[in-house]
Amino acid sequence: MERDEIIIRKAIVHILDSTIGMPVLSDHLLELGPDLNDFLRGHIFKIASSDDMKSCNFNQEESFVYQCIQDFREEDLIRVSQEIAKYLYTILNQNIDITPGDLFIVTYQYGSTLYLAFLKMNYKESYIHYASTDEEGNYNDIIKQKVTLPSDSTKLSEAVLINLSDYSVKLVEKKYEINGVKTNYLSEIFLQCQTKLSPKAKLNIITKAVEQIQEKYYEDDFDKHMEVKAIIHQEYMEQGAINVESIREKIFGEQNEIKEEFTEKLEKYNLHTEEVKPQNKQTTKKFEKQYLTTDTGIEINIPMDQYNDKNNVEFITNPDGTISVLIKNISKITTK
């Protein structure tokens, strides 16, 4: 998805501050000037391109939100958004641990497809200056603002993107304590939909399974640890995805018992045949370098392309069992 290809069509904002006892619902759409357009477009792009984003399918018979939008028309945005905002406010008001905020409901277009976005912008505290003048002169003060909205550089922690052609849902969410249990209220209570793991969560589970196998069978084999990381990096660079079956064969080869143990760890999450396609470079950044620390406290970071080139770096096992790292063909060294 390209940011500039997101077209903001209509938007409205409702104030869901649970401290004032009732929602403040707008009866008018927002005037979409260039700054507000960029603000909304930026937040939608961050969500759509995030590897924290989860897929979700409505329980169509039970979901109040689905009932509101199943025959959605843009000319009904004010009425529909008010119903949805009131419903969300009821949930917030019944669960005081959920952070209050302003709810932006936006229709936008990407390509020929129309989408509906719910952007919950949670309040945060900030400080502003305040200037006043009286008979004795000017007085400057600092005031705490408790209902400041997130800046355009902030990634929202709670948002929903709905494809209005097929009612598929993408969302980011956070857990809050509800009746003593940490709950994804946005998907489970508000939307009433079934979520799938995000690409980031899937990749974390896969790499954790790899690490557990390494610790059990290759604890002191640093060569194997580096080899595994290089295999995962190469898989992503060549395929644009990380295929579990492919890396299992490349990492564990003919070691069938270890492969079976690795598969069993991922079967718990139904990821044993998964192909993960991260969108954000930050998600795979940890595979771009080999990070080494010696028992003497020396730290070495080696870019993966340099690690794979034996003309640039070599690991030598000495007769006494110690290891030497040989860095070759250096023409210049800088310090930081």
From TrEMBL:
Pfam families: NA37. GO terms for cellular component: nucleoid. This is Uncharacterized protein.
